[in-house]
Design a protein that fits this description.
The complex is a heterodimer of chains A (306) and B (329). Chain A has 306 residues and is an alpha/beta fold. Chain A has helices at residues 5-18, 38-48, 63-73, 93-101, 118-136, 152-157, 168-176, 202-218, 222-250, 257-291; strands spanning 27-31, 52-56, 78-81, 106-111, 148-151, 180-185. Classes of the chains: A alpha/beta (306), B alpha/beta (329).
């Protein structure tokens, strides 16, 4: 929650109502460096109700880190995430839990009848979802919906940082082997507080996606990726060499034509060399990581569905 | 080398009021243009003595500056709370500070340049600010008679700094600071980023205050540095900008730069290709070379960003990347 002081009390009430009758639950409210009184409001509620807990971040870190902080302090076997702005409906939580119990690691909500502006929110989101599906190969209808339920084992296998929260299903499936399904959830228009999203996100989303895709495929052997790219550059260089030979034999060696193509082939070869070296740097990084006794691939228990 | 015994809070003066003031370790990294250090110690410690505050001074020197600390020997011999530490090589101010701080055990650490920048009273005032609740208090040099040259330099520096995400600071580089020791444990100090410590601390959610302090006359003379120094500052600022913005997402930066290059190259090549299809020869066009060069540069930049992402992923996957408010832990 960031600057959501007006939403805290209604949110807590809604969660209490939705989970009434369940024996054990806790509500973790992560304060992502709010400038308003969000923190005070939450901690006063937490003092009266031990089921409500405040995780106050020292500054504004962004949604991914805030979520990770929540995961780190959550104690349940199942963790449900939702936005602090009441656009998600806590009444959907029991349904998510039932679906999770069918044998999934992650149940993602998708918003039926989404209540947001069409041009600035829905269209970019539609495009983003398409691109995410295309690049990551993980088919999720609505990556922007925060209402999701996770099994604890899954969370211990992945860490969110930077702005990964947009692609949790992709990260979960790609790096932690999660079994994922989707269910439709309710979505309400924002009634209080201010929306914190803007339109200028496409480039950033693309950059993050590329990095997830790469990490997913090549985190164990980055050299494979870079060697592949280097091979492509070498091929282009070889092509230029071929053209150069033709150019030199057909034209006067002093012509510009006989200089441009050899230079171009040199450029491609230089790129190939550079990429190979970068790949080696990547290998060094991974080697160092392993030397410190740190795992790269998470291991998981195979569970058989009932 | 003169190395005093490691007594950390050696002053024996009783507190004036009921509450005992917190002990403070004053670290003096002896780098450029050191002043008479014995004078510096006597002048600045007098204020701490007057406030009844337990303190120690830690002078830390690089090998070449050893002669500057010889004047401290009689003071150490007479039992003044001074420690003199030496590092094995020339490492720069931040590393000196880091090394010295790791040997301190006082709850509050203050830093003082090796020549007077502010009037001695400022040190105690800053320490009081930290006692009152700030995590870091940094002195802002104010004076009537400061040279125009210095003032313009300072304005320019802070204008650029503000653009790069350090808005609201008036004198980030005064070097006279008091802080909780925990700050130094939480913030990585290296290179010249020490200069921006208040900014880094504020960014990490620490409470940072700037406190006006009368500038010392010694510090008011106009200073024009060699061009190399300005270049270094500019590089510092660029490095800071990158660290603040893109530490966790290098591909955002390299990807943007790379895409722009690759796009430029791609457009040039596409135009040339269209011309070739239209029947015009392109083999003798330097533009072909430029287009290829831009494309190659673009791919290089993006590849750099990808390597950066791998490194970030590796380090983030096993480490907590956030800090909770201290009162909650």
């Amino acid at each position: 929650m960031m600057n959501e002081e007006s939403n805290v009390v209604p949110l807590v009430d809604a969660v209490r109502d939705a989970l009434a009758g369940r024996s054990s639950w806790e509500l973790i409210l992560v304060d992502d460096g709010s400038q308003d009184r969000t923190r005070e409001v939450v901690s006063s509620i937490a003092r009266e109700d031990p089921r409500v807990r405040l995780v106050p971040l020292a500054r504004n870190y962004g949604q991914s880190t805030a979520m990770q902080a929540g995961f780190d302090s959550a104690r349940g076997d199942v963790v449900v995430t939702m936005d602090g702005d009441l656009q998600n409906d806590p009444r959907d939580i029991p349904m998510l839990l039932e679906t999770l119990a069918e044998g999934y690691d992650l149940v993602a909500g998708f918003r039926i009848r989404r209540q947001d502006r069409f041009v600035t929110r829905k269209i970019p989101s539609w495009i983003a979802n398409r691109i995410i599906r295309w690049i990551t190969g993980v088919s999720i209808r609505d990556n922007g919906c925060s209402l999701k339920a996770y099994r604890r084992e899954l969370l211990s296998r992945m860490r969110l940082y930077s702005e990964m929260h947009r692609f949790i299903p992709a990260v979960a499936a790609g790096t932690a082997g999660a079994r994922i399904t989707e269910v439709g959830v309710r979505h309400h228009p924002r009634t209080r507080g201010e929306s914190k999203y803007g339109l200028s996100r496409i480039f950033r989303v693309l950059a993050d996606l590329m990095s997830i895709k790469m990490i997913r495929s090549f985190r164990v052997r980055p050299l494979v990726l870079f060697a592949g790219l280097a091979a492509a550059a070498t091929a282009l260089g070889a092509l230029s060499v071929g053209v150069s030979i033709v150019a030199i034999t057909r034209f006067n060696p002093m012509d510009a034509a006989s200089l441009v193509f050899p230079s171009i082939s040199l450029l491609w070869f230089a790129l190939a060399l550079f990429l190979m070296m970068l790949g080696l740097v990547g290998e060094v990084a991974i080697h160092q990581h392993r030397r410190q006794g740190l795992k790269i691939l998470p291991l998981m228990q195979v569970r058989y569905r009932k | 080398m003169t190395d005093a015994s490691a007594t950390s809070t050696a002053s024996t003066f009783p507190a004036a009021g009921g509450r005992q003031p917190s002990a403070v370790s004053v670290i003096v990294p002896v780098t450029d243009r050191p002043h008479d250090l014995a004078w510096l110690y006597r002048t600045f410690s007098a204020e701490l003595v007057a406030a009844g505050r337990p303190f120690e001074f830690v002078f830390v020197v690089e090998p070449w500056a050893r002669s500057h600390v010889e004047v401290l020997e009689p003071l150490v011999a007479s039992g003044e709370p001074i420690r003199v530490l030496e590092v094995g090589q020339t490492v720069g101010e931040a590393a000196l500070l880091d090394a010295a701080a790791s040997t301190c055990s006082s709850p509050i650490v203050a830093t003082l340049p090796a020549y007077p920048r502010v009037q001695p009273g400022a040190l105690e005032e800053l320490v009081v600010k930290v006692e009152e609740g700030a995590d870091l208090a940094s002195a802002v040099r104010v004076s009537q008679g400061a040279s125009v040259v210095n003032r313009i330099q300072n304005r320019l520096f802070h204008a650029v700094l503000g653009r790069m995400g350090g808005r609201g600071f008036r004198d980030v580089a005064s070097g006279v600071r008091a802080m909780r020791r925990s700050i130094l444990e939480d913030l990585p100090l290296y290179g010249d980023f020490f200069r921006f410590l208040p900014l880094m601390a504020r960014r990490e959610g620490f409470i940072v205050v700037e406190h006006d302090a009368a500038q010392h006359p010694e510090d008011q003379r106009a200073r024009v540095y060699a061009p190399g120094v300005y270049l270094r500052r500019l590089i510092d600022l660029l490095g800071l900008f990158f660290i603040l913005r893109f530490t966790h997402k290098p591909l955002r930066f390299f990807g943007l730069v790379g895409s722009l290059f690759a796009l430029g190259g791609g457009v040039i090549l596409a135009v040339l290709f269209a011309q070739r299809v239209g029947g015009r020869g392109i083999a003798d066009r330097p533009l072909l070379l430029l287009g290829t060069l831009l494309l190659v540069l673009g791919v290089q930049a993006i590849a750099m960003g990808l390597i950066g992402e791998i490194i970030v992923h590796l380090s983030a996957s096993h480490r907590r990347t956030y800090r909770l408010r201290p009162d909650s832990e």
